Amino acid sequence: MAVTLCTFNVNSIRSRIDLIVRWLTEKRSVDILCLQEIKCESERFPFEAFENLGYQCAVNGQKRLNGVAICSKLPLSSIKSEFENEILDRQKRLIEAQIGDTVLLNCYIPRGGASGEERYDYKMEFYDAMTEYADSLLKERKRVILCGDFNVALSDLDVYDPDVFDGAVGFLPEEKQKLKRLLKSGFCDCFRKLHPNERTFTWWDYKTAAIWRNEGMRIDYILASEELCDLCLSAEVDLWTRRRRTPTPSDHAPVIAGFEEL
Description:
The protein contains 8 helices and 14 strands. The protein has 262 residues and is of the alpha+beta class. The protein has a single domain, classed as Endonuclease/exonuclease/phosphatase (Deoxyribonuclease I, Chain A, 4-Layer Sandwich), CATH 3.60.10. The strands form 3 sheets. It has a 6-stranded mixed sheet. Strands 5-6-7-8-12-9 form a 6-stranded mixed sheet. Strands 10-11 form a two-stranded antiparallel sheet. Helix 4 runs parallel beside helix 6. The radius of gyration is 17 Å and the shape is globular.
């Protein structure tokens, strides 16, 4: 059975819930919705709104910051929000669940900062811990999806102007190396596999109205293990939610991938 999976940094689920419900009912339905930066404690997540649309939700929330959730029309099992790793568990940035034979990891990797800053060090440490965890998981499981906001644009194709982003957080050489190392664990970038030469973005700055000039970055990814990558039929960025004036949009757009099965 074909399955659609979406990753979406919503930048506050409580501020964005009306927009998301409209998107899911008026524009498109997806089977699995992975949300980042929900910015609320788990008990304050709008479960009812998603349950009314047929979703089961697993949430790893944090007050005012971070937070991730998986909402699925397919049964979730083996839900995990603690990983026995101080770096991964320091903030609410990671959640795992099993759907059929597939392990799904939804992550919100720290934005980071300039080299030498504490925020930079935390981002590098988080990538290292995430890669170590992914390495061990892929040794045991053939079907793994890792998706979310990775806060790194990997190549020149992933920014509207490489010169503008030279030396900027999210496009630093050290950050790119960390993401490349994670990919070498055994993942492929579903969007880039199907669109090897396309310049498409998933984030645009609010302050400069950059969405209307398409001055963005591609920092949100759906990564799949080799077996699942072969089953990926489609991958796209849906701009409908980002090009809204009301309800107020997130600064990210959802990324959707279609799989032959999970």
